[in-house]
Specification:
By secondary structure, the protein is an alpha/beta fold. It has 2 domains: 155 residues, Rossmann fold (3-Layer(aba) Sandwich), CATH 3.40.50; 96 residues, N-(1-d-carboxylethyl)-l-norvaline Dehydrogenase, domain 2. 47% of the residues lie in helices and 11% in strands. The chain is built from 9 helices and 8 strands. It has an 8-stranded mixed sheet with strand order 3-2-1-4-5-6-7-8, sandwiched between helices. Strand 4, helix 3 and strand 5 form a beta-alpha-beta unit. The protein is elongated and about 65 Å long. The N terminus is likely disordered.
Length: 271
């Protein structure tokens, strides 16, 4: 079977998983090339994107490049098993995955004698933040040398190469959940400080503002607890992976106590 030349702008691209990350990746990729196809199982998402002029559907076509942007590690594995690998595609995992996923995929690939190159290229996505979006921010990539070469030849059409930082697959898959766990820790610290302040009748916001005048201090806001999809999920990944950790377990407990504290305050105030 002939190997397709790397980096050709007419290679077909499929983005699988069109949630918040995948849909924006589809839109940004579509700005540079029009052979992009999006896949999702949610008919509402497909209808919306189709009405906006994007080429989407619920079946995975044969492509040269697959970008996986589903939510869970289990979903990543399910998607990979559905991909047609007859043309030795490049598979890019943008999803946050559990440590060890890359090794599991490689073992499955070898066992079934499949041909594909694969990299981990975890997204760093900030909704409504144009300065830190899909292709204009630093990102890390991990894989073997050939897979990374193919991926860089693909992504050079979308982003400056100096923003792509090559590392090992193990570091690439660990970096994203650890980044979110670190942010979880920062917010949990703020939550703890706020509860301590209010016990002593101290204005937390004034204290935070004063502390943040120091150049290397950045106390986060403490609102209603750490919610959303990514931070709790990714922090659990790290908590489960590092069995003997103490600080992350404590941060999870602090956030739990803080949520109860906020709820109690709202009940007392009648909000």
């Amino acid at each position: 079977m002939k190997q397709k030349k790397e980096g050709l702008v007419n290679n077909k691209v499929t983005i699988i998983g069109l949630g918040e990350i995948g849909s924006d990746t589809l839109k940004e990729t579509n700005k540079k090339r029009k052979d992009v196809f999006g896949v999702d199982i949610n008919p509402k998402i497909l209808s919306k994107l189709s009405s906006e002029g994007y080429n989407v559907g619920n079946e995975i076509p044969i492509s040269d490049v697959y970008i996986i942007a589903v939510y869970l590690t289990e979903q990543v594995m399910e998607v990979i098993k559905k991909i047609n690998c007859t043309n030795n595609p490049l598979i890019v995992i943008e999803s946050t995955v559990e440590p060890g996923t890359y090794k599991t995929i490689q073992e499955w690939k070898k066992k079934n004698n499949y041909r594909f190159d694969i990299v981990l290229f975890p997204h760093r996505f900030n909704p409504q933040d144009k300065e830190h979006h899909i292709f204009n921010l630093n990102r890390v990539i991990g894989g073997d040398k050939l897979s990374i070469k193919r991926a860089i030849n693909f992504y050079k059409y979308f982003m400056p190469l100096n923003l792509i930082h090559v590392t090992t697959p193990e570091i690439a898959e660990l970096s994203k959940p650890m980044e979110n766990a670190y942010r979880f820790l920062e917010i949990a610290i703020a939550e703890e400080i706020k509860m301590l302040c209010e016990e002593k009748g101290i204005d937390f916001n004034k204290l935070r503002k004063a502390m943040n005048t120091k150049w290397n201090i950045n106390v986060k806001e403490a609102k209603n607890g750490i919610n959303g999809k990514c931070l709790p999920k990714d922090t659990d990944i790290i908590n489960n992976f590092f069995d003997e950790n103490k600080i992350i377990k404590n941060a999870i407990e602090i956030d739990k106590r803080y949520k109860e504290y906020v709820k109690k305050k709202k009940n007392v105030s009648g909000e």
